[in-house]
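Course exercise 7: structure representation. Students receive a sequence record and must write out the corresponding structure in token form. The form below is the worked example handed out in class, using Aminopyrimidine aminohydrolase (209 residues). Read each field label carefully; the graders check that inputs and outputs are placed in the correct fields and that the protein name is recorded exactly as given.

STUDENT ID: A-19
EXERCISE PROTEIN: Aminopyrimidine aminohydrolase
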Amino acid sequence: MYPTHRVQSLRDRHLLRWQSFAAHPFLQRLREGSISPVAIARWLTQLYYFDELMMRFQLGILRQAPREHRVLLAQIVLNMVEEMDWLLSQGIDLSDPPDPSRQTYQAFFQDLQRLPYSHLTVMHWATHQVFMDALKTLDTPDERLQAILERWADGEFGAILYDLAVLADEALEHLDLSEFDAPLNRLFDLEDSSWEMALRIAEEADQDS
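STUDENT ANSWER:
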């Protein structure tokens, strides 16, 4: 996962917040199997909206990328499109509008696009890795979630994520870790909002049942 010490050092610099999401009450409830199918479907719908924002962000990175990085970045864009198609196949309801937390993520991605390519490379990896580090702690009885976790854990996506870490590691060779304190703290705040949104969805479904 971490090909040399530089990306690990960046993660360690922010370790408390980076690891905190795995203990979020929403993920704890997923482990317990206490979230209704309706709530899971609504959460997956919001995940679809996030994936669409991420795909557009990745296309912006691809446009800036040097030739030797383009195949990898094109692969991850394709992976995102396939994931969105899979989510649609699960019957998610796009009449449910994007949560405001999706809009704040959109603003975040737009701001990141103004950074130099080397910084974009690091933040692209971090945005994936923070989410995956929380999700990989999850064991859930829900079949749809098991399927998507298997997609994320398979060899192809794992290899892509490793290659993103390699690119981030190379970029960090010429950068100071402190340059990422502000964008990472903003990312952590957005992840907090996203998991709180998921918990609110679960609680609203409990009230409606």
